[in-house]
Amino acid sequence: MTLMGNRRKAREIALQVLYQLDVQDKLSDEQALGLFWQHFAKTEDGDADEASRAFADELVRGVKSRLEEIDALLTRASRNWRLERMARVDRNLLRLAVWELKYSKDVPVKVAINEAIEIAKRYGTAESPAFVNGILDRCLEEVGPK
Hints:
N-utilizing Substance Protein B Homolog, Chain A, single chain, 7 helices, mainly alpha
C-alpha cells in the first residue's frame, strides 16, 4: 500500500477512535486506542500496518491534547452551527483536519483539506463534504498557511 493509502487508512481509523471517544467520554485516549486495536485492527484490506497504526495513534493523541484549542477554532469558524449540534462524524473529522492544518508539520494544507473531504464522502452524509470544506476554509483563514 502506498504512503497516501496508509495515511488515508490511518485518518479513517483515527476518525473512528475519535468518534468512540466522543460517544464514551469516560474513556481515555489510551483505552479507546487499545480497544480499537484489540477488536477492530483488521481492516477491509488486512491488518493495519505499523505506519498506519503509528499515524492513527499520533492523530488521536494530537487531537485530544489540543481539543480545547481545536474546538474553539471550530466554534469561531462555524458561525451558525454549535459544535454539539454537528453530526458526530463531521465534528470529529473537522477536529482531525484542524489538527493536521494547525499542528502537523509534514501534511500540506491541500492534502489535509482534500483528505477530510474524501473521508466525509465515505463516512458522512450527502451534505458532509461541502460542510467540512466550508468550515475548513474558514479555519484556514485564521490559521494561515504553513
